[in-house]
Amino acid sequence: MNEQEAIKAYMRRRGITRIRPTAALIDMDGTLYDSMGNHADAWYRLISGIGIECTRDEFFLYEGRTGASTINLLFNRAYGHDAAPEEAKELYHKKTLYFSDMPPVSPMPGAKEMVNTFLSNNITTVLVTGSGQNTLLNRLDTDYPGAFPTERRITSHDVKRGKPDPEPFIKAMTIVNASPEECIAVDNAPLGVKSGAASGAFTIGVTTGPIPREELSKAGADIVYSSMTELAQRLPILISIILQTGK
Question: What residues contact 160, with CB distance under 8 A and at least 6 apart?
């Protein structure tokens, strides 16, 4: 599906005749930063270390969940119950330490260009992440200056129900006073795409890891790009088509 087809399909589904984006709601891990490999390694070290059988690649599928949600998912699979709240908190803290000990990650190629394109079109950027990990949150002002001030960040600390629930993206809309039809969501994981699509935003899926693009389409992405670099190249065209639609 090309950009024009994707936009028309979205408008038909929403029952609207035009889109005027004022906000871009953007995921962090695997979207702004090439960090999911480190997260998967840290999670695998933690969970296998406490005796729960798991694979490294499965943690790419859990991207977007809060730390407690991921831990409880695995505890229920292994033991049939949630972790005690204090145990979950302690385990997630250990996972953050494992992640922090790994080599620093870089911004995802194409991500800065994507952010600059949104900003140059007067589209406000908002962070929507399932993470609460300061290792990367503290780098945002340096790597993406002015794009994600603290008042325009939704993290795991701000929600009761993480992705795939729409709450994170709906909260992001609220802080910039935007309706769903005024928002573009960008995420690289099925759970994040489900969350963005359920919020009503025009949702872009981007493949930046081992998850195939078909999974992002099935999760509800309005359009899928094969990399952040491709998204950065096509985004000016997408925005131009959106602005021409419904004139």
Answer: 167
Exposure string over 186-225, b if 16+ CB within 10 A, otherwise e: bbbbbbbbbbbbbbbbbbbbbbbbebeeebbbebbbbbbb
Residue of 41, 33, 16 whose CA lies nearest to 181: 16
Q: At what angle do helices 67-79 and 85-100 cross, to 10 degrees?
A: 120
pLDDT of residue 247: 60
Q: What is the pTM of this model?
A: 0.89
Write out the two tokens for 194. 């489900």
Q: How far apart are CA 140 and CA 74, in angstroms?
A: 30
pLDDT for residue 122? 97
Inform me whether the pLDDT recorded for 133 exceeds 90: no
CB 39 within 8 A of CB 164: no
For residue 33, the cross-strand partners are: 29, 107
| Distance, CA of 96 to CA of 114 (rounded, Å) | 28
3-state secondary structure of 190: helix
d(CA 241, CA 167): 28
21 preceded by a cis bond (ω within 30 of 0) = no
- Token pair for 144: 């993406």
